[in-house]
Amino acid sequence: MSYVDGFIVAVPRGNVDAYKEFSAYAGSIWKEYGALEYVECLGNDVPYGELTSFPRAVMAKDDEVVVFSWILYKSKQQRDEINTKVMADPRLSSDKWQMPFDGKRMIYGGFEEMLRL
């Protein structure tokens, strides 16, 4: 079954265009190395919950928007191989890019596909 890396970040509204530019660039590199899909979704109906919510999870501030993203791979083994190559790729060097969000508040994880309808 497929494997998915999922991400949630809080992006300052003033940085959305820079985030989109960075993501398009980074996503093309993931795809170059074999990722099947690279998807970024900008939250527009993401309420701040009383106990839990996407905004709470990333400590989103009033001037930030929640972004939900995922990368799809054929398998976890393929994901591990691709991520090793991506992380070593000098095109994603921190010298070239200033992150348009606070990476310390990013939530991410790997998920094995369980069901697809």
Give a structural overview:
It holds the Pfam family DUF1428. This is DUF1428 family protein. InterPro entries: Dimeric_a/b-barrel, DUF1428. It comes from Rhizobium mesosinicum. The protein is built from 3 helices and 4 strands; from the N terminus they run βαβαβαβ. By secondary structure, the protein is α+β, with helices and mostly antiparallel strands. The relative contact order is 0.32. The model has no long low-confidence stretch (mean pLDDT about 95). It is about 30% helix and about 25% strand. The two termini are about 15 Å apart.
What does the radius of gyration come to? Answer: 15 Å
Q: Into which percentage range does the β-strand content fall?
A: 25-35%
Count of individual beta strands: 4
Side by side, the strands of the main sheet go: 2-3-1-4
> Count of helical segments?
3
Task: Report on the biggest sheet.
Answer: 4 strands, antiparallel
Contiguous low-pLDDT stretches (5 residues minimum) are: none
Protein name: DUF1428 family protein
InterPro entries: Dimeric_a/b-barrel (IPR011008), DUF1428 (IPR009874)
Organism: Rhizobium mesosinicum
Q: What structural keywords apply?
A:
4-stranded antiparallel sheet; 117 residues; 27% strand; 3 helices; single chain; Alpha-Beta Plaits; alpha+beta; globular
Draw up the topology in text.
Blueprint: E1 3-12, H1 16-32, E2 37-42, H2 54-57, E3 64-73, H3 76-88, E4 107-112
Antiparallel strand pairs: 1-3, 1-4, 2-3
Brief digest:
By secondary structure, the protein is an alpha+beta fold. It has three helices and four strands; from the N terminus they run βαβαβαβ.
